[in-house]
Design goal:
The structure is a single chain. 24% of the residues lie in helices and 38% in strands. It is α+β, with helices and mostly antiparallel strands. It starts with a helix and ends in a 7-residue tail after the last strand.
Length: 239
């Protein structure tokens, strides 16, 4: 009963604030984990392609994978295609993510609570010679990640440093916190070879790639990190 009330309140609050999509389609994806996946937003639209519920939570609540605790066993495995449209062509990612939070509450019956826990994390910082990323004007944001026999490639457009920290956290065994102090949005491409694929596959580690290709660095330290605890989630009905 408590879970039902929490979910209902999420929907009511979203509706009162205008934070709901006018139309939304949720379908199971036929693609696997090695296929291209990601979330694109812009002009009042959200296009989530071949994503897990965990990936949607990461985007909606601006957290990395290690900041999500609990939940059903399919949270990391079932993949979905979500296409949603607001009633106005808004380009504010914050507003679109608020709408996504409401959608997750309505369609996945998602209920969470927040906790702050001390943990070791990687802090993303500017390297000695400064950043090498291209500054971008406002526009449609999106991050596509491809994992194939050449390694991992992240192609990001109109992305801020908080979002980059979350992208990096997906491939590391610790949370990543943005400590760059860099404002604004950027375009960048990042390519590395996972540790378990080297030396059979030629290429640099994620740590070397971040420094050489982006002009940033990752440093581990103890810090406080917000964690989302999943109290309830259900597989959605397709439409």
């Amino acid at each position: 009963m408590i879970i039902g009330i929490a979910t209902l309140l999420l929907s009511i609050v979203g509706a009162v604030l205008g934070q709901t999509f006018e139309v939304a389609s949720v379908k199971f994806s036929s693609l696997d984990a090695n296929s291209t996946s990601g979330i694109k937003t812009g002009h009042g639209r959200l296009d989530a392609h071949n994503v897990t519920l965990k990936r949607c939570i990461m985007g909606a609540y601006a957290v990395g994978p290690h900041q999500i605790s609990g939940g059903p066993d399919w949270l990391d495995f079932d993949r979905f295609d979500i296409l949603a449209k607001a009633d106005q062509p808004v380009d504010d990612d914050g507003a679109l993510m608020a709408m996504l939070r409401t959608l997750l509450g309505e369609r996945f019956k998602l209920a969470i609570r927040r906790e702050t826990r001390p943990t070791t994390a990687f802090v993303l910082q500017v390297a000695k010679n400064g950043p090498k990323m291209e500054k971008a004007a406002p526009g449609e944001s999106g991050t596509n990640t491809t994992n194939n026999n050449t390694g991992v490639t992240v192609d990001a457009h109109h992305t801020n440093m908080d979002a980059l920290a979350r992208v990096l956290a997906r491939s590391l065994d610790l949370p990543v916190v943005n400590g760059t102090g860099l404002d604004g949005i950027f375009n960048f491409k990042l390519h590395w070879v996972p540790d378990n694929a080297r030396p059979a596959m030629e290429g640099v580690s994620i740590f070397t790639a971040v420094q050489e290709q982006l002009g940033l660095r990752l440093r581990s330290e103890k810090t406080l990190v917000e964690v989302l605890v999943i109290e309830h989630a259900e597989r959605p009905t397709e439409n």
